[in-house]
Task: structure prediction
Amino acid sequence: MNRNGSLFSQILSLFQRSDFARHVRDLKSDFGAKGFSSWDHFVAMLFCQLGQARSLREITDGLRSCEGKLKHLGLMGHQPKRSTLSYANAHRPWQLYERLFYDLLGQCRAISPGQNFHFKNRLLTLDSSLIELCASLYDWAHFTRTKGAVKIHCLLDHDGYLPVFAQIGDGHSSDRAVARTLALPKDSVVVVDRGYSDYQLFGRWTKEGVIFVTRLRTSALYSRVQSVPVRAGGPVLWDDWVQCASPKGCGPLPVWRRISFWCQERQEEIQLLTNQLDWPAATVMEVYKARWQIELFFKTLKQQLKVKTFVGTSANAVQIQIWTALIAILIVRYLQFRSRFTWAVSNLVALLRLNLFTYRDLWEWINRPFDTPPEPLAQLELALDSISQPAFKKEME
Result:
């Protein structure tokens, strides 16, 4: 007989129920709950992401179609009604999902592989991405006169390409304001784009021992301190030590480094600014090129999970759905780290959707997803063969 629960129930076992209960008590998430607990709510919203449900009806009907298997998921009762789920999305604190995200992040980082560069510094990329919304339905998501939007700010760790920080705001939330709130570890390397250009911030990072690599604005003013020779005919065009023009109230700025290189893919010259004065210019260039990984992360988030269409219109409902999508990304990464099979994210998300309620061992499935599981009859015959025939006949008599 199959002793395994469904793949979905085994995925849910990654979340410690004791920690979940502690978060619920701290946030009073179950206050006023009548037969629909915070765990039921979490299961329903995670099913929305992993099952690719496009509406409240698809969530409730999808769970209803598997009602005989819901007891393995720890649900208190039957599948939720649409009105119940809608009310929970609007009123249950989204901070519960944020805490679950960071709980699972700790498990992922414990088994994540390292980054692909020779240096031992921790490599991070900071960026944001907009999700456009209908201004008439999402009137709280201010962006333009005719469009609403939410912005996801994310810090990506290149050790396993894990999002180690996320913040969700409306379309007007400032990239630089979010960057100022971060406390980055000493000797880490953070890569940012021109939207984060802030000399006061760069000066603070330099004092804290944080290495930054960013793209220099075309309008930036600086004076050249000295030039470093570069190899003729290579991609690096200039390698200078410079002192940028200090804005008012910023004080004197330290000497930084301007590197200009020719990008063959884009057929354009790219100028970088960094406070790392010792690395080869080619290494700094490759570090900046690695920033593309966060673009791939946002692309995966938007194309493979449910963050472009929402099952609720309130700010709280949108926060819950986006945080659940980030949790689903960590689940996918965790399964990739544990698997010996070479998974593409799109294939893993698709096959998970098709096999959520399949009764197989999760860790065998991610290693051999296309193997045919044993038939129940064959399992029964195997069990009968293990019983001695005389004892079996005596028991039947």
Observations:
- The mean pLDDT is 88.
- Residues 203 and 253 are 7 Å apart (CA to CA).
- The chain is about 40% helix and 20% strand.
- Residues 194-290 form one domain.
